[in-house]
Design brief:
single chain; binds flavin mononucleotide
Amino acid sequence: MKVSEAITSRRSIRAFLDRPVEEDVLRRIIERAARAPSGGNLQPWHIYMLRGEPLTQFKQLMSERVAAEPGGEGAGGEGVDYVMYPEKMGRAYMERRSTFGEALYTSLGIQRGDRESRSKWMHHNYQFYDAPAGLFCYVSREAGPMQWADLGMYLQSVMLLLREEGLDSCPQAAWARYGRTVSSFLRAPDDQMLFCGMAIGYADAEHPVNTFATERILTKEFATFLGFDGAGS
Ligand SMILES: Cc1cc2nc3c(=O)[nH]c(=O)nc-3n(C[C@H](O)[C@H](O)[C@H](O)COP(=O)(O)O)c2cc1C
């Protein structure tokens, strides 16, 4: 598979086939993705991979935890260790987020005002969308913006390598709302902070949630080209 094919075929998959993923494939990908660059070669990613019995146990624990605290840990999910979205977000970002949310819920036949169904669907995050494997990415609490950017490079490398193996994924910041439970299950050290999880498996192509494609803004809206003669798009 060409890199460009991996990039264009990657999308967030939120329903998976009941088909296990081979241990060796996952190990290889986790190892290879570490060729991702990082400032000063710090390699600040800490990865926990779950499959098989530990994943089954973990999912059971999560269904109990979500039933007990549906909004996340702490008051209203305030147990989250980092700010996911700025409190005051520019209009363009707000619009993109809401367009994505509409496309997602429309694909599932959930109406805009149906908060109960939305939140029920949201809780699928905490079962890794029924994927047969899942990953958690941690970073040191002392890490700054540069190390956080490094995590993105590592995780995108994982997602592209998964495509090469015919596998799909969904990165999930939603897990940060249950960071305490996740960390205690994984026995992650206190000086590590949960950034996100990732559901991993074979896509269920028939499931409606996997049928919508997200849009991208025009290149000219985010890129500036200096010394280029063509008009571009
Ligand atoms: C850091 C990060 C966190 C995300 N968190 C979630 C999440 O918690 N749940 C989810 O369903 N999708 C999540 N996504 C997926 C985004 O919604 C998705 O990448 C975006 O809408 C673009 O769609 P695409 O990945 O299909 O191209 C996350 C993506 C990233 C990069």
